[in-house]
Specification:
CATH architecture of the largest domain: Roll
Protein name: PhzF family phenazine biosynthesis protein
Strand content: 35-45%
CATH superfamily of the largest domain: Diaminopimelate Epimerase, Chain A, domain 1
Pfam family, one: PhzC-PhzF
CATH topology of the largest domain: Diaminopimelate Epimerase, Chain A, domain 1
Number of strands: 17
Order of helices and strands: EEHEEEHEEEHEEHHEEHEEEEE
Shape: globular
Family: Belongs to the PhzF family.
Mean pLDDT: 91
Number of domains: 2
Keywords: Isomerase
InterPro entries: Phenazine_PhzF-like
CATH class of the largest domain: Alpha Beta
Length: about 260
Amino acid sequence: MEAQLYFFNVFTDKPKSGNPAACALLSYWPAPDVLQAIASEAKQVVTAFIVPIADAPSQYQIRWFSCVQEINLCGHGTLAAAALVRQLKGEGCYQFLSQHGELEVTASFAALQMILPQWFACPETQTELPPALLACQSIDYFQTRDLVLVLADEQAVQQFQPDFALIQQLKQHALIVTAFSSPDTYVLRYFAPRIGINEDIATGSAQCSLAPYWFKKTGRTEFKVRQLSLTDASFSVAINTQQLLLQTQAVNLPHLTRLVATTA
């Protein structure tokens, strides 16, 4: 069997910026090694695969793969999936279900708005920082799924020098460095060499940790977010006690669409 593999730039409304992703709508789940082979050949930061749920026209099962392994709760892969469903079915509210949780995206042609879970620091599981990270002179740190270093300012985040060998040895999923930039913006960088992504361009799941933290620190409920990677990407988040909402856009790259085999 074959399926169409579509390509998108996410966290942007411009074809030459944002975070690249691929997505395929499948009728069934192939073997994991087939999905991994497709993702490896696609050579995108992430490839998302979705399968419709019977008798639930707005619901899909979803899995995400980097070039080297399956990953969990990928925001930008989910946004690519929502952009694909919007392209094929039109505007709507779509749910994407995985073994790591459910994500909901309201997909209009003007924007993609995703509901994300909120992850809070767990003091009882606080970790000791490796000496090399202590040398970064962070003003705070905490862990959720990821290890988060809070630095003094935007310049410190921009100038942070990642040691990928060290980061790969961390027990957490990834390392995030962040700082607040007055009056309404926080910045970040995201490093995940354990899953084959040395530095991500734009990371939806990072906001699950950062937005609750900065809400608690500043009292603000709406933030502009800038990820200080080499490629321009932008989005906004709004937070309250019940929901975390991320809003952005995605651009289809039709010239890259191609057929892929879904059987070994």
